[in-house]
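Here is the promised in-class demo. Please do not try to memorize the tokens; focus on the logic of going from shape to residues.
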């Protein structure tokens, strides 16, 4: 039997902890999916149903590319809406294209079943050890927390760097060193080294900066290529950006946050609307209450839960007199149109302040 080669769909920088985890708990080679490009999108669109969610097309495109790189096992993590069922259709499409590849789904419909995950991993590698997996899961949990903590700081401050690109450079170096750590102590050391460097980057940041919150569908928010690097565009206008949705929040904090706050925001949302929709309504209220200058809601085309949340978010922003901008992304979204609307949004906020 040929050696196992495992690949993953691409989403932000989270292939780093995925590669670290699976390379340490399974006897296999880990293949990194190529960065998403227009070719990736064309590949995904070509082999996907026309009206399926855009993240389906992006993830299918990255899966096909990593299969072409030599992967014979593709791991899909699923999600809380239709994303949780992608793997069934993607498996059928990959099979119909003639690939003899195993597609493994670890999360179905937003639910992670520990016993199912154990069975799946044991079937991939009969020598799989639960004890070893728990040890590296602990490291990976902290790694993800560190990654998101650094990203939050960069998102708020990158638009004010005196020497452009330093924060992103240090962050990339940190992620590369994360792949080589052997224990949590080495992880802590690497994090502290590069976080101190990032904190030391000189900033020219005004006291009263424009603050914008970004909310929306998880994949489109977290994969920068799918939103045409919207956060970088905002930073280029001298905006401080706040985003709640990241892996730490989705994996460890979201369920608790929604349960605790659903009554607090009952004026606008009284029940779970599916996926991230209820959560985004609550976040819109908190951003307005915290004095943010504007809110940007982004989603993929045909994302049903977010379509349902948009009218509620619009009402929230009218009540608090905070401007909101909605974007829907698909393979045909115009970068020029995006930039034009962002420039107009920035101009409007500046005029409101004056």
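The designed amino acids, position by position:
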């Amino acid at each position: 039997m040929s050696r196992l080669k495992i690949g993953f769909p691409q989403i932000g920088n989270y292939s780093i902890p995925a590669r670290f985890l699976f390379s340490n708990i399974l006897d296999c080679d880990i293949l990194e999916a190529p960065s998403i490009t227009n070719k990736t999108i064309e590949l995904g669109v070509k082999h996907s149903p026309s009206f399926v969610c855009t993240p389906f097309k992006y993830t299918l495109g990255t899966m096909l590319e990593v299969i072409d790189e030599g992967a014979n096992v593709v791991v899909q993590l699923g999600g809380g809406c239709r994303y949780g069922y992608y793997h069934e259709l993607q498996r059928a499409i990959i099979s119909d294209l003639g690939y003899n590849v195993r597609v493994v789904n670890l999360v179905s419909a937003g639910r992670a079943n520990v016993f199912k995950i154990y069975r799946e991993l044991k079937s991939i590698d009969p020598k799989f050890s639960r004890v070893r997996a728990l040890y590296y899961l602990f490291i990976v949990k902290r790694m993800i927390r560190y990654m998101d903590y650094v990203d939050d700081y960069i998102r708020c401050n990158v638009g004010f760097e005196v020497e452009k690109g330093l924060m992103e450079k240090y962050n990339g170096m940190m992620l590369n060193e994360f792949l080589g750590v052997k224990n949590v102590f080495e992880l802590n050391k690497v994090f502290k080294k590069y976080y101190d460097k990032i904190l030391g980057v000189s900033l020219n940041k005004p006291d009263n900066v424009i603050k914008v919150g970004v909310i929306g569908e998880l994949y489109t928010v977290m994969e920068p290529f799918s939103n045409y690097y919207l956060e970088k565009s905002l930073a280029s206008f001298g905006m401080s950006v706040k985003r709640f949705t990241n892996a730490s929040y989705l994996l460890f904090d979201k369920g608790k946050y929604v349960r605790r706050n659903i009554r607090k925001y009952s004026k606008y949302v009284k029940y779970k609307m599916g996926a991230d929709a209820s959560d985004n309504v609550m976040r819109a209220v908190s951003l307005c209450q915290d004095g943010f200058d504007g809110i940007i809601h982004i989603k993929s085309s045909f994302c049903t839960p977010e379509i349902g949340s948009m009218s509620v978010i619009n009402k929230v922003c009218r009540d608090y007199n905070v401007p909101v901008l909605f974007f829907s992304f698909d393979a045909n979204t115009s970068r020029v149109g995006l930039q034009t609307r962002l420039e107009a949004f920035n101009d409007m906020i500046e005029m409101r302040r004056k």
